[in-house]
Amino acid sequence: MDSVKDMWNLVCEHIKKSLGDVIFDIWIKPLEILSFDGLRAEIGAGEFVKKIVEQQFGAEIKEAFKTVTGLDVEITFIDPKAAEKARQKDPALQPQSGLSIEQNTFETFVVGSSNRFAHAAAQAVAAAPGAAYNPLFIYGDSGLGKTHLLCAISNEIKKKKPDADIIFTKGEDFVNLVIGGINLGKNRMDEIHEKYRNCDVLLVDDIQFIAGKRSTQEEFFHTFNALTQDGKQIVLTSDRSPKDIDVLDDRLRNRFEWGLIADIQAPDIETRMAIIQRKANTLGLELPDDVVQFVAEKIKSNIRQLEGAVKKINALVNIEGAAINVMMAHSAIKDIMNDSRPVAFVVNKIISETSRTFGVLQSDIISKKKDAKTAKARQVAIYIVRTMTDLTQKEISEYFGGRDRTTILYSVEAITAELEKDSALQKTIDIIMKNVRDA
C-alpha cells in the first residue's frame, strides 16, 4: 500500500459496493481518513454525520477495512477542527480532492491573456468583499484555475481579516448536505440555515452540480438572498456560464447573472510555458527551454495536466536518475496524453455526467423508465458512449439494462439527426464529453 490515502480509497470502493452509490455519496464520501497505524483508524466527520455513520454504517466500514488490510481495525471519529489540525501536521492527509488551499494564492497564480480578467475580478472581490462584484461568477473548462482563484480569494480575505467567517464548499457537497439535512429533519435544516445564511463569504466550487436538484436549488435560492441582502460576498465557479446550465431554475440563473461573469479560457503557449516553469521551480527542478516548449505544445487545455507532467518528469529524475531531454519528456507525458482508463469507468462516468446534466437518476437511465426527460438523457448517454468508445452495439446494450441492439442504433441515429438542427444540444454533449475526458 503506497499511502494511507490509497488504503482509504480502496476501503471506500468496498463500502460503495456494499451500500450503493446514493448512500455512499451522502454519508461516506464526505468522510476523511486522518490517521492509520495498522490497528486504529481516525476518520474526520461532523457531529451529525458521526452519529448516523457510527450507528448505521459502522459494521460496513469495519468490514471494508478488514477486507483491504486483513486486520480488525478500531475506528474512531473526530470532529472537523481536529481533522484540520491533523491535515496541517501531515500534508499527505489532505482531502481526496487534492485541494491545498494554503498554496493557492494570487501570487502563485500564473496570469495570462486567457485568465487576466477573471484574476483581476477575483482580486477586486478579495479587496472589498460584498462591495465589488456580488456575486462573482467564474466559469471555464476543468483544470484552468477556477478553484485556485477561489482559494486565493479565501486566503487574501483571511490575511486581512482573520476572524472572517468564510465557507468554502463544492456544489456536490452542498447537494449532499441538503439531502442529509432533509433526512434528519427540521433541527438539522435549522443548523444549515444558521451556518450558511450568516457567513461573511460563501465560495462554491462547481455550482452546476445543484442543477436539477429541486430542494437544493430552493435552499440555495434562500441562502443567496439572505447573504446578498446583508451585503455578504458570494463567489461561484462552474464549467459553463449561467445561461448554459441546463435544468437550472430561472430565478437562480438570474441571480447568478446579477454581478460579474468572468470566463477563463485555455492558456496560450506563453502562459503554459510560464506555468511549467513555475511548477518546476517549486519542485527545485531545472528544465531546459526546449523541454518546457515541448510540453507546452503537447498539453494545451488543462493546467493540472501541465503540472502533472512536471511532477512526472521530476519523479523520473529522482527515482531513475533520468536525463532531462525532449525524449524523456515525451515518455513522461504519453500517459497523460492517452486515455488508458478502463472502458467500464468511461461508460459509468458518461452515465453519471449525463444524469447530472439532465437532472435524472443514473439508475433511471439504465432502467425501463420511459418518461420524455429520462428517455432523452438515455439516448444522449448511449450516443456519447458510442462516440467515445469502441464498444459494439451489443456491448453498449449491456450497460443500458440489456436493451436490444436496434434500440442502441435508434438512439444513436435519433441524436445524430437532432444535432443537425439543435446547436444547444451539441453544446451540451460537448460539455459532457469534456467533463468525462477531464475526470
Structure described in brief:
The protein has helices at residues 4-19, 21-28, 47-69, 80-89, 116-127, 146-160, 171-184, 186-196, 214-229, 250-256, 269-282, 289-298, 303-320, 326-337, 343-358, 362-365, 372-388, 393-399, 405-419, 423-438; strands spanning 32-36, 40-44, 74-78, 136-139, 166-170, 201-205, 233-238, 260-263. The chain is α/β, with parallel strands linked by helices.
Question: Could you explain the architecture of this structure?
Answer:
There is one protein chain. By secondary structure, the protein is an alpha/beta fold. It folds into four domains: about 5-95, DnaA, N-terminal domain (GMP Synthetase, Chain A, domain 3, 2-Layer Sandwich); about 100-265, P-loop containing nucleotide triphosphate hydrolases (Rossmann fold, 3-Layer(aba) Sandwich); about 270-335, Helicase, Ruva Protein, domain 3; about 345-439, Orthogonal Bundle (Chromosomal Replication Initiator Protein Dnaa, Chain: A), CATH 1.10.1750.10. It is about 60% helix and about 10% strand. It contains 20 helices and eight strands. It has helices at about 5-20, 20-30, 45-70, 80-90, 115-125, 145-160, 170-185, 185-195, 215-230, 250-255, 270-280, 290-300, 305-320, 325-335, 345-360, 360-365, 370-390, 395-400, 405-420, 425-439, and strands at about 30-35, 40-45, 75-80, 135-140, 165-170, 200-205, 235-240, 260-265. The strands form two sheets. Strands 5-6-7-4-8 form a five-stranded parallel beta sheet, sandwiched between helices. It has a three-stranded mixed beta sheet with strand order 1-2-3, sandwiched between helices. Helix 3 (about 45-70) links the parallel strand 2 and strand 3 (about 75-80). Helix 1 (about 5-20) crosses helix 2, helix 5 (about 115-125) packs parallel to helix 6 and helix 13 (about 305-320) crosses helix 14. It is globular and about 55 Å long.
